[in-house]
Amino acid sequence: MLSEEAIVSFDHNTLSIYFPLPFRIILLFILGFWLCAFNFHYFHIVGIDIGRLIRYTRHVPPEAPLYSDIYKVAGVLSALWGAGMVVFWKITQGSAELVESWEVVPLTVALGCVGVMIWPGNVWHRRGRGRFLRMLRRTLIGGLDTDLRFADILLADVITSYAKVLGDTYILICMSVVARGHAITARPDRQCGGSWGVPLVMAFPSLIRLRQCLTEYFRVRNKVPKKESHAHLWNAGKYASAFPVIFFSALQREWDAVGSQHWLTKEGIGKIWLLCVFIHSSYSFFWDVTKDWDLTLFTHLFSSSSSSSSSTTTSPDAPSHPWGLRPTRHYHANELYYGVIILDFLLRCTWSLKLSPHLGYVNDLEGGIFVLEFLELFRRFMWIFFRVEKEWCARTQVEGVGYRDDEEEVEEGLRLEEWRKEVGKEKEGENGDGVVMV
Which end of the chain is more exposed for a tag (fewer CB within 10 A), N or C? Predict the structure, then answer.
């Protein structure tokens, strides 16, 4: 078993030399493309038409599926990253001085990756890249297209999972611009930008989703029942609950800098932070299960506790579907749903590492931060599987599309008419291949 001293030594003396922060950030962004491709590939295998859900249709039926183009883009980006790493290792040879001197290598890799995405030529999946970049631009200001609502929300939720990565990106920019002379390949200066720079950047993705939720509320508040419109306000509250966590985390960093001059004790700030992070994690987990995945776990828990106190007889209205799930499901294995609920809960609670006297230091290590960032991306990867599946089951009620415990049908004419409208929405470039990365 490695001691804490050995882990800290490896983190300080090895990880930052052979795997500096710029390469870690680029890798995490590239990983997002791979995970998107895996998602889309699996949807294709199980018969979920993701192109229809995000209103992105292929112009020619024989064209390859969406996921194949995303694989190609991810492969090129990975090749650039891998080549950059090999060149960097070859030049630096594990020398700390050379590592700091050759920051141009990761900068070149980053520019190459950006160039792949914004290449203006009418080749290399221009239509799909253009669609993705327009979505990204719209989403970064909290916009929400009426016709592309589901795609915009998926992308914005993915961005929230990159909050820590965006904070690391801010640190690199700060080291390069503010702390001049500090190489970006050196060990990160996590105090750069003061106590509030990184927290403000990390709060930005939640602010995007908060604005989207409020936009949805004001669009539908006079068109749907109050219960439905107020759901957007409750969703906005979920994202707003992240702000106190970030605020009191920043206060903790500030207290470490000013000490006893602060208006709150360190213990007091820690207790408030703990309460806020517990509320945020619980709120988010509840929303994942109940709203985003439309599972009945908490409904059954609450109804079971209330009914057990009043009666022990079985209700004739008891649901016929498996406990905690829902009547309409596309994935046949019930264990898959239960397993992802457990994993989502565990990954939502990674903050609890800070409460352990033996594991709390992991959150301050470069390797620990990287692992937590990777786990959050993996959690989002799982979340998308079931968020899209829920949307597919809700929109498509044709026999044989999903696994159903009840029998519901819609008129074929309405379905075809909806499909024609979706095809009509695709007015971007008629030439080039299509790919969308959400």
Answer: N
